[in-house]
Amino acid sequence: MNQNQKKKQMTRGLTIALALLVVAAIVVTIVAVVSSKRTKPNPSDTTGTTPGQTTGTTAPEQTTKPGDEPIVADDVTFISPVTNGNISKEWSAEIPVYSDTMEDYRVHLGVDIEADAGTPVYAAADGIIESVTLDPMMGQTIVISHNGGYKSVYQNLQTVIPEGIAEGVTVKAGDEIGAIGDTALVEISQSPHLHFEIYKDDKCEDPLTYVTVTPIDDETYYED
User: Fold this and answer.
1) Whole-angstrom Cα distance, residue 111 to residue 89?
2) CA distance 126 to 67
3) What is the rounded CA–CA span in Å between residue 94 and residue 92?
4) Beta partners for residue 141, in sequence order
5) Is 108 helix (H, G, I), strand (E, B) or coil?
6) What percentage of the chain carries pLDDT values higher than 90?
7) What letter does residue 111 receive in the DSSP assignment?
8) Distance, CA of 76 to CA of 148 (rounded, Å)
């Protein structure tokens, strides 16, 4: 083999090697691109992790239990929350009145309906229980939301309440929601009573403009 033939063979070998290197580089590039596409998160995939979320599937949509739907009515009709009771202190949201317990003058945002401890307390109108709490000053408290922007508040209840009375439960006027107690620390010197409030669009109203309380022994008296 002469010198020219040797040069041609070397040139051909280099050309083949370079061609193989170019093909290998192209293959590596294609594999990398495909792998990147497979591992890139899909924005529409709700099973992945996104900022502010934890890994997992989307939580199922909550459904409303039968009887929990808001009551649709044009008017709200109130009844007395206590069948028979004496008004021991009137509503006075603007003029402070004397508090025997606190020994000072302060506004009184409800009416106190006095009756024996354990006397049933009823929902004053159709509505949904907004909260059931143990207020540090006013004791066991239940708040019911009604149509038309009304709310009724029941305080100084016994701590034990009927089964099923809880936040979010729908009640009808006359449903028993608790019993008269003596859990309100700021009214502890008074006899057992229900402290009852009514609000219209978050403004405190005189409950006695909405309900008529039948007095015990057909006699209504007021605390001095």
Assistant:
1) 6
2) 12
3) 6
4) 133
5) strand
6) 54
7) E
8) 7
The token pair at 145 is: 């939301």
Q: From CA 106, how far away is CA 75, in angstroms rounded?
A: 33
Identity of the amino acid at 21: L
Whole-prediction pTM: 0.64
d(CA 156, CA 101): 14
Q: Work out the burial of residue 89: count CB atoms within 10 Å of its CB; fewer than 13 is exposed, 13-18 middle, 19 or more buried.
A: buried
- 51, amino acid identity: P
User: Is there a contact between 82 and 71 (Cβ–Cβ < 8 Å)?
Assistant: no
pLDDT, tens digit (0-9, with 9 covering 90-100), for 23-32: 555 544 554 5
Query: Beta partners for 99?
Result: 104
* Pairwise CA distance, residues 150 & 191, whole Å: 28
> Helix H segments across 63-172?
none
Q: Which residues contact 148 (CB under 8 A, 6 or more apart)?
A: 75, 76, 200
CB 88 within 8 A of CB 114: yes
CA R_g for the chain: 38
The CA angle 95-97-103, to the nearest 5 degrees, is 140
Tens digit of pLDDT for each residue in 86-137? Answer: 999 999 889 988 888 887 888 999 999 999 999 999 999 999 999 999 999 9
The angle at the Cα of 12, spanning 7 to 15, to the nearest 5 degrees, equals 125
